[in-house]
Amino acid sequence: MALPLDRDQIQQLTEELEVIIAAHLAWFKQLNRVLVCGSEPPAADILPDAHLRSPFGVWYYTQEPHPLAEYAAFQELAAIQQAMHAAARRALAEVAAGRRPAPELYDQCIDLALRLNTRLRNLQLDIIGELLTTDALTGCSARRGMLARLREEQERARRIQRPCCICLMDFDRFKRINDELGHPAGDAVLRQGMRFTAAALRKYDSIYRYGGEEFLICLPGTPLRDAAQVIERIRQGLAQLPIRLASGATLNVTASFGLAELHPARAVEESIANADLALIRAKEGGRNRVEIWQE
Fold it and tell me: What predicted TM-score, i.e. pTM, was given to this entire model?
């Protein structure tokens, strides 16, 4: 899913969806009672904008832009929910007129309500999966699932015949920061440094916490020369970024980068090893630099 959100936002969305699903099921229960038992239809459900007044509608339509606005599974919810309320409005009008809805109309109401519930639950599971694969400290993707995603990017690069580059990034002298200033300072470096790095990338780029203070950046559809320019901008900006510590003091840090093209016909692990060799050269060459692996 690769949501451009931090862990707290993903957690909040998970909790919001639990509330929305419960409210939808309560609405569905009430609708079924009216259609089966002939109870008095709720006035709000007969209105043309009923889909906006429901808890789902308030959650879906009032946030501009919604955090999930660009996610396809989220976009599909609107059509299902609007069709559900349109069918419910016709069925409730029949009940209000003292008639029983036709079986086809009743089935349509039930099918759409169940479909919306299923889609909401699947969306929640997708977000929970994102939560499990997101590094708690930095908000970057965790290493779990990284190779599978890189293989997908490799296949896409092969299909569209556009290169994909990967870059290993490592904060310089990070152990010294932890030893001299404490682990909270190290955490601040990782958290703020990677927030800056993520903001400098495109929405379809991705960052994985590869281990400790080391991160892997994936740049799909990007030739090596262009990727080098992107990484160089990140390197320069990071060196100028004041890291704010809990004490109120600020700290400047640098990072080293090893860049390589994701080879379209070789194992992903080999390309990662190439990026790692380039990173080693950057460290040996004085740190705070970008090195490019060349075949």
Answer: 0.65
pLDDT tens-digit profile of 118-159?
Answer: 999 999 988 887 777 778 889 888 888 899 899 999 999 999
Looking at the fold, whether 113 and 89 belong to one and the same domain comes out as yes
Strand intervals (E) in 89-233: 165-171, 206-211, 214-219
Range list of H helices, 211-267: 224-239
- Structural domain count of the chain: 2
Range of the domain at 80: 7-132
Question: Could you give the residue numbers annotated as active site?
Answer: 213
Q: Tell me: do 272 and 208 sit in the same domain.
A: yes
pLDDT of residue 127: 84
Q: Which tens digit of pLDDT belongs to each residue from 26-47?
A: 999 999 999 998 888 888 899 9
Side by side, the strands of the sheet bearing 165-171 are: 206-211, 214-219, 165-171, 255-261, 290-292
- Domain of 43, CATH number, reads 1.20.120.30
Query: Is-contact 88 20, C-beta < 8 A?
Result: no
Radius of gyration for the chain, computed over Cα atoms and rounded to the nearest angstrom: 25
Separation of alpha carbons 274 and 253, rounded Å: 25
CA distances from 75 to 125, 176, 220 (A): 16, 47, 24
Instruction: Please compute the mean of the pLDDT values over residues 168-195 and round it to a whole number.
Output: 96
